[in-house]
Design goal:
Layout (H helix, E strand, L loop, with lengths): L3 H14 L7 E7 L3 H13 L3 E7 L3 H8 L2 H5 L3 H9 L2 E6 L12 H23 L4 E6 L3 H6 L4 H12 L6 H19 L4 E6 L2 E6 L6 E3 L9 E4 L7 E5 L4 E3 L2 E3 L3 E5 L2 E6 L4 H8 L8 E7 L11 H4 L5 E7 L14 E7 L5 E4 L2 E5 L2 E2 L4
């Protein structure tokens, strides 16, 4: 018997997020720890007429690979992955780690090599998505590892996750459809605007959004969701930002990150913890020192930092700015092997200005568009 909350999440992922249709080739991935949700998704996707490829990973093997594989093996892309990127219609990927720190002591240079080798897959995936040939969604199954990171018991963390996913359990898809319409009012209001200024503690940053639309993130690609984002004009970012929460990447926690931009490029950076890793990531490639995303978090059901970017970047009352690869649906042009989201809390004195209009203060929009 599968828990009702798991069944409802599966319903949203299959019927709302990627909308599985008869004949769709569906890639479903997750670890053995996510077995209950994998089963619920599998059964529903089969019922919808999809042809499902189930890829189940074993906890610990990725760490073993990154420690022991040769550089040629680290850089290798399986022909099976190439085939799936070209031919499959729907991707459903479940984060389901048993140890979120397993990569923390892996040489960052090896991580960079893997990211570089996989860049063309990410680029092709985005191209097919923009062409309407592919839909994908990333979600999470609550595990003990994620609960520990969030300083919660597993039961508390499950309630947190399903609360963020299912604010209205009796009408889960209807809720996300209404949420999408609300966010679209802001996306429409922001259309055609030219400049953003972000002001917060140790932060005064300006960037151009001229010609760059905002995108409504409403549960179609991430679940749960709750943000609107754009890609800044690549050479426009100027000023200083200090990120409130630790920046998480590959099991590493980089604390009190600050970045200084000139003409769109990071010219100085530092952190209280993990600075060496931060600097190595900034040197991944030319695009790693530029912003690929500016976004406002809008999920009121997520109010606490949990050391998981899927949730933390959606915290209502925050913004996040990502280093690296930009998104074609926001007309971004920055290319990079990385896309590293970092979150800034605006709930205690932060402000967002758009074309000299204050739109967001202390974590809340200042008016309804």
């Amino acid at each position: 018997m599968i828990e009702p909350r798991i069944e409802k999440v599966a319903q949203i992922l299959v019927d709302y997020s990627v909308q599985v249709q008869p004949g769709d080739l569906v890639s479903l991935r997750g670890s053995t720890l996510a077995a209950p949700l994998l089963e619920a998704i599998y059964r529903r996707a089969i019922a919808r007429g999809g042809f499902v490829h189930l890829g189940v990973s074993l906890p610990g093997l990725d760490e073993f690979f990154m420690r022991n594989a040769s550089l040629d093996q680290v850089r290798f892309i399986s022909p099976v992955e190439d085939l799936m990127i070209e031919k499959y219609h729907k991707f459903i990927h479940l984060m389901s780690d048993g140890n979120t720190r397993s990569m923390a002591s892996v040489d960052p240079a090896r991580t960079v090599e893997r990211s570089r080798s996989r860049e063309r897959l990410f680029r092709r995936e985005l191209e097919r998505e923009m062409a309407g040939e592919l839909k994908w969604v990333l979600s999470l199954f609550p595990t003990q590892a994620y609960a520990q990171d969030a300083d919660m018991s597993l039961e508390e963390y499950e309630d947190f996750v399903y609360g963020a996913c299912l604010p209205e359990p009796d009408d889960p898809i209807g809720y996300w459809e209404r949420f999408s319409k609300y966010q679209q009012t802001w996306v429409s209001w922001l259309a055609g605007k030219k400049k953003v200024r972000l002001v917060a503690r140790d932060t005064d940053l300006s960037l151009s959004i001229e010609g760059r639309p905002f995108v409504n993130c409403d549960g179609k690609c991430n679940f749960p969701d709750g943000e609107i984002y754009t890609s800044p004009v690549e050479n426009s970012v100027d000023g200083m930002i200090r990120y409130t929460f630790p920046a998480i990447e590959d099991g590493r926690e980089v604390e009190n990150v600050w970045l200084r931009f000139e003409e769109g490029r990071v010219v100085a950076a530092g952190a209280d913890k993990g600075e060496e890793f931060l600097l190595k990531m900034l040197d991944t490639d030319a695009g790693a020192r530029r912003l690929g995303e500016f976004a406002i978090g809008t999920n009121a059901g997520i109010q606490r930092f949990t050391r998981n970017t899927l949730f933390d970047e959606k915290i209502g009352g925050t913004c996040h700015l990502a280093l690296g690869r930009s998104y074609p649906d926001a007309k971004g042009e920055n290319e990079s092997a990385i896309h590293w989201d970092m979150v800034c809390d605006l709930r205690a004195g932060g402000e967002i200005w758009v074309d000299d209009t204050l739109i967001h203060r202390d974590g809340k929009f200042t008016f309804n568009p």
